[in-house]
Amino acid sequence: MILLTAHLAAKAPHLEKLDPTSGRRVPAGQWLYQRIVRELIVPLLPLIPVVILLMLEPHMSGIVLTTAICGTILLLGGNGGVITWVGGAAGIFLLETILQHIDSIPYLQSRLDGWTQDLTKMTDQTLQSLYAIGSGGVTGLGLGNSIEKQLWLPESTNDFIFSVVCEELGFVGAVLIIVLFVLFIVQGLWIAYRAENLYCTMVGIGIMAQIAWQVFCNIAVVTNTLPNTGISLPFFSSGGTSLILLLAEMGVMVNIGRNGERAAQQREALRAQHEAAKAEQEAARREKTIVLADARAARAEQ
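Given the sequence above, the corresponding structure tokens read:
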């Protein structure tokens, strides 16, 4: 999904408002067609069958996560320009309205009904998660000393692993893990933006967007900031397939970083060669240049 969207987004030709050849303003219809169809709709075409299959399952959290990843690729990749940012903001504002019209999906409606600050109406899983977070205090109960994971907190090794982390390592450990995730994502985006071409940049943005959205959704769910949903915490939640795919993505990021560094070194070498050739040409030109004062002195001697 990330590879297809990144490929189509990178191959989309970019069109500015001014024609670089003539300096005239590009017609509005042509500009809108380029921005909306070529830069937004075409890269999102692979998302349509994926969303349809997830709706038939149904798996709403997967739809939200996949859409957020593709949207992040287009936003940070510059596709669509301001139109993409306006569309993203409008989608966020319309999300509440959309959630109010999902009565046809019973399990999703029950989770939304349990998304409340009232402890008596809150879902049991979220309630036990908050108990685990509150029990940790500042420094935690100690590694391996969690009480909630002893058959009190469902999915304590997967979706709600962060609650166990908070209980065992406390506020200090939770903040440390969040900071490490932030630094990891920033480093990944820095590697992506230094890639050798636009396609590698898009792929890097997509991989880091997936990890960033998973971290945000998982922590938001266990703290009751978002409704209860099944999104794992990268590198922490149990699951061999998920870990293998994450490690494969990290291999891709390492490759992007190496190729980007090699391309940067090649560009620096070409620039150094260009500067050296320019210096040689300047030196040759100076040797062929006749200084008027020297010429007059030589003529006077004759």
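The chain is about 70% helix and 0% strand. Try to locate this feature in the token string yourself.
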